[in-house]
Amino acid sequence: MELAIIGLGKMGGNMARRLIKGGHTVIGFNRSSETTKQIASEIGLIPAISIEETVSLLKAPRVVWTMVPSGEATEDTIRVLSGLLSVGDIIIDGGNSNYNDSVRRAKTLETLGINFLDAGTSGGIWGLQEGYSMMVGGKEEIVDYLKPVFDTLAPKKEKGWGYVGPSGAGHFVKMVHNGIEYGLMEAYAEGFELIKAKKEFNIDLYNVAEIWRYGSVVRSWLLDLISTSLKDDQELSDIRGWVADSGEGRWTVVEAISSDVPVPIIALSLFQRFISRQDESYAAKLLSAMRHQFGGHDLKKVEE
Q1: How far is CA 198 from CA 129, 146, 161, 205, in A?
Q2: What is the 3-state secondary structure (H, E, C) of 65-127?
Q3: How far is CA 187 from its chain centroid?
Q4: How far apart are CA 18 and CA 184, in angstroms?
Q5: Distance (Å, rounded) from C-alpha 195 to C-alpha 205?
Q6: pLDDT, average across residues 78-96
Q7: Mean pLDDT throughout 157-162?
Q8: Whether this model's pTM surpasses 0.90
Q9: CA–CA dist 214, 73 (Å, integer)
Q10: Does pLDDT of 304 surpass 60?
Q11: Confidence of residue 18 (pLDDT cuts 50, 70, 90)
């Protein structure tokens, strides 16, 4: 099958590599022409220097997979594509868009006769080797048409990807997926910190990770990554304890509030990321001040 990928970053580039290896024809465009040329020379990608050229190189029905940052970048890309594509063509948004935006975009594109799929995609930099997990929303018959593409990108044929519902459902499920990821990561981080704090046992954290990776009910790919991180430096001395969030965790918590669904673990794990970015907590200062005022508890001054 022939398709185009717009956004040949790490993930988009690796998806192109996997598709071409699987026998598909891929036309690619990236804002950096050097990146496009480099990937083209490495894997046989057909390079394009603009979105307009990307579309012109495709045969109908044209399939364009966008892998650009959520928000304005995706909005602008889909807006440009909507003016270039024709009835029956297909846009797939594989980025981390807010599902409400995907619902809106699908409705707008439908008035033009353009099909839209929201494909929540997980796999990151390991997707080239391990395959991608994809949660796809939109018209089921369009998903069925593109089944060869999804099967090629997935870990195994008909494994690790699937149709989850109408437009918006794919990005909605991916949003919740990432919220769960926040909670899992926080639980692992807290557990290993507790083990590390038990100084008298002098426990080898890497050894613990390796033990848990096999047979344990907490074994997972995240644990595999923890093991790799701990292997050479259990103090993680070159890493700051500053953790970003890309938005999906926030959206998950907001959705939970609007749906009256309790998600305390996901919410707390999101707030823990906020805490990680504070050089010094004003709230902690105020707590200390209150304890000193009502109970005479020790108060540590800045110079101490």
Answers
A1: 37, 53, 42, 11
A2: EECCCCCHHHHHHHHHHHCCCCCCCEEEECCCCCHHHHHHHHHHHHCCCCEEEEEEEECHHHH
A3: 19
A4: 28
A5: 8
A6: 97
A7: 95
A8: yes
A9: 42
A10: no
A11: very high
Report the pLDDT value the prediction gives residue 282, as an integer from 0 to 100: 86
DSSP state of 59: P
| Residue whose C-alpha is closest to residue 222's, from 271, 270, 191, 188 | 188
H or E stretch including 271?
Answer: helix 264-276
Q: List, for residues 27-42, the tens digit of each pLDDT value.
A: 999 999 899 999 999 9
| Residue in 64, 69, 54, 12 with CA at minimum distance from that of residue 35 | 12
Q: Region 1-26: what's the mean pLDDT?
A: 96
Catalytically annotated residue among 2, 52, 75, 181 = 181
Q: What pLDDT, on the 0 to 100 scale, is given for residue 297?
A: 81
Name the token pair of 72: 């304005």
How far apart CA 300 and CA 284 sit, in angstroms, is 11
Determine whether 248 is an active site residue. Answer: no
Which is catalytic among the residues 174, 186, 248, 255?
A: 174
Upper half-sphere CA count for residue 287 (Cβ side, 13 Å): 5
- Strand pairing report for 133-137 and 115-122: antiparallel
Task: Indicate if 190 belongs to the active site.
Answer: no
The strand pairing partners of 118, in sequence order, are: 93, 137
